[in-house]
Amino acid sequence: MSDNTSITVDMNKWAQDGYLHLPQFYSHAFIDSIIENIDRFRAEAGDEAYDPSGRPNRVLHIHAGSAGIQKALLNPRINQVLTQLFSAKPVLWGSLLFDQGSEQIAHTDAPWFFVEPYGSMAGVWTALEDVHEDSGPLFLVPGSHQSALDVESALKKNPELHAEVLAFRAKNISASTDPACWDLSKRVAEQCQLEWTNREGRQKFCVKKGDIVIWHQWMVHGGSPVNDPSRTRQSLISHWTTNSSVAFDQHNYFLNYGRLDDKLAMPLPVQDTADGFYLKQKSHIISWVPPETFINTVETA
Ligand SMILES: O=C(O)CCC(=O)C(=O)O
Ligand SMILES: [Fe+2]
Question: Domain range spanning residue 210?
Answer without folding.
Answer: 19-286
